[in-house]
Design goal:
Distance between the termini: 28 Å
Helix content: 25-40%
Strand order of the largest sheet: 13-12-9-6-5-17-18-19
Largest sheet: 8 strands, antiparallel
């Protein structure tokens, strides 16, 4: 067992989900091939006085279920899983994919049916204390364009960083966002406006995602107008989308990149053409595109939006079976960009420019 893995297990159990004596902790490992990886997490949970429950999913098996299973099958399985999740106090999601495109050839109709059947399970999961992170694999390293060794070291370093320092610095942005009504994002081929008035701003400081580092809220559902052109790859259900452009009117996507796969995803249900999240990325250690949303949405100098379901903590009323995060980088090397809060410029080319937020620029946090 590596020291790095042991440190990660300690961070997850004692900081991220803060396991207390008597709590039920569900470890859900997705596509993890080396189950020995789970051992330090089990040890740390027992050391904290918790009870451990382990489940290992396989994406190849899930794909076959999507292709061949009936709606009745999905409903029965989801009912069984929901009852289990209800008994849990905390959930650890550990991702270990060796093929991030496993679902790429599953027809949209079948993916949507599968996703909708398990919506109640995912809704229940996010009511618990939960955390999600990657175990380093060659597939993830390839996505990031890194060697396996470099990627592995980067994952451990960013996942075990000092999130308490970042957490304190985030308070200023939370305070400012909760005073803000209108937000405007301007970048190449992008001019998008919306209101966040009255919706809470939530700081993500290592308690849910690892690595972490964002403050999120949600646009008022029908307030979004304009066009946004994303400059990172966007993945969802094993499919990769490039150069996604969306045009909104009164909150709803009315035009998009001419890609039938994208249109199918936007037509998943009534809420999939509306936004459920707006967030600003702040992690001082993540500077480059990793082609993995768990990292890319935390890049300092970025914003991201999620089509579909809104989180309960910052709820704009939008409900959907999807929650799809897409990232826009605002740094000069990606074309630059500006963020305005109530017509006041707060960030230019990926750097905060107002006095109260200077402490969130990368050099102040490292």
């Amino acid at each position: 067992m590596s020291i790095q893995l042991q440190q990660l297990a300690q961070t997850v159990v004692t900081y991220s989900i803060n396991v207390q004596p008597g709590e039920n902790v569900y470890i859900h490992a997705l596509d993890l091939k080396d189950t020995d990886v789970l051992l330090p997490f089990i040890e740390e949970i027992y050391k904290a006085g918790g009870h451990v429950f382990v489940d290992i999913s396989n994406y190849q098996l899930n794909r076959k279920m999507m292709l061949l299973g009936s709606e009745e099958q999905f409903t029965l399985d989801a009912k069984f899983k929901l009852e289990k999740v209800k008994e849990m106090d905390a959930i650890i999601f550990l991702l270990g994919e060796d093929n991030v495109s496993e679902y790429a050839d599953v027809p949209a109709e079948k993916r949507n049916r599968f996703r909708q059947a398990y919506k109640a399970v995912s809704d229940e999961e996010v009511k618990k204390k939960w955390v999600v992170f990657n175990y380093p694999t060659k597939a993830y390293a390839q996505l990031a364009g890194m060697s396996t060794e470099a990627y592995t070291n980067f994952v451990y370093e960013t996942c075990t960083a000092d999130y308490s320092k970042l957490s304190k610095a985030m308070n200023a942005l939370v305070e400012l966002m909760e005073k803000t009504d209108n937000v405007r994002i301007v970048a190449p081929n992008t001019d998008l406006q919306f209101s966040i008035k009255g919706i809470p701003a939530i700081k993500c400081d290592g308690k849910v995602n690892l690595p972490d580092g964002e403050v999120f809220t949600a646009p008022i559902k029908d307030s979004v107008n304009g066009t946004i052109s994303f400059n990172t790859k966007a993945m969802y259900s094993g499919q990769t989308f490039d150069n996604v452009q969306l045009t909104f009117k009164d909150g709803k996507v009315i035009d998009c990149t001419n890609d039938q796969r994208l249109i199918d995803l936007l037509d998943s249900d009534e809420g999939s053409r509306y936004l459920g999240e707006f967030a600003i990325g702040l992690n001082p250690h993540i500077n480059n595109i990793m082609n993995d949303i768990g990292f890319d949405e935390k890049i300092n100098g970025s914003v991201h939006f999620a089509l579909g379901d809104a989180y309960e903590d910052a709820d704009n009323g939008n409900k959907s079976s999807i929650h799809w995060d897409i990232v826009l980088l605002l740094k000069p090397e990606f074309g630059g960009g500006e963020i305005y809060f109530d017509d006041r410029l707060i960030s230019k080319d990926g750097r905060f420019v107002v006095e109260e937020l200077l402490g969130l620029n990368p050099e102040a946090l490292r």
